[in-house]
Amino acid sequence: xxxxxxxxxxxxxxxxxxxxxxxxxxxxxxxxxxxxxxxxxxxxxxxxxxxxxxxxxxxxxxxxxxxxxxxxxxxxxxxxxxxxxxxxxxxxxxxxxxxxxxxxxxxxxxxxxxxxxxxxxxxxxxxxxxxxxxxxxxxxxxxxxxxxxxxxxxxxxxxxxxxxxxxxxxxxxxxxxxxxxxxxxxxxxxxxxxxxxxxxxxxxxxxxxxxxxxxxxxxxxxxxxxxxxxxxxxxxxxxxxxxxxxxxxxxxxxxxxxxxxxxxxxxxxxxxxxxxxxxxxxxxxxxxxxxxxxxxxxxxxxxxxxxxxxxxxxxxxxxxxxxxxxxxxxxxxxxxxxxxxxxxxxxxxxxxxxxxx
Length: 357
What we know:
This protein is α/β, with parallel strands linked by helices.
């Protein structure tokens, strides 16, 4: 089993990565928690695949388990769904001594994490991500969130789990589109780190090769992100580099109204932003092509007609990453050399349309 430590000033935990890990989740949780009630929160796609296996093991390990299911998809990352879960936890008499296990993809992880962090001012939390996107990105770092109609992740907390339990075998039930979606975040982190990580993804030329190298790709991604989070847990400085591609990506993901998966939007965002910075000669010539080759190899989208519309720029104004009247765009001085480019929000349209720095 691969183990990646996350050591923060107020929290120390481990990210465990192992094929077949789901078959001994009861033992692993019992090593972390004393007997208590556990709320297993999942969605209606993931629950039929893994929920009963997880519940049986937790019960065998001495836990009392209640399962809650939400609709699959981004629409569940809402205040309405969070309140429904709050009410169910209260009805089932959960207390601050109990815990939440998030079993699912990024939506479930964000939602369950938000609920755990706020119900009774905080229940213990374990993340058990089952999608590639969640395994390499959203389950690591302690961000929780729900969406509002005006933007993604506008209400949330920083709340670190007691552990992250990753079983790469769960990816075998994931549709190819969502394997590729998660891979977009791997490409992002490889571009940010450069070096041997980038060399590894240069060997991925077909979607099936993502699964063949899943353990290594997950470990490298998690180790990189954990290192960034340990440097800057609350995103005051270096952690902002993880937003590479996300400013454009979040805007078009919202405008696409469910037609673009998160990783697909980030793929488009990275490519478009790098094109812009390359045109301004702030990123080296050829950087866009290197990104495009890696994303295109697994069938990820590279362009969107939503970029540049009036609605697109309106979404940028409501981005949670804004700092007052300023937005920090993440770009690449070179592979492995990310940097922040601060720009006034009222100048964003001119900058992104190529009309001047």
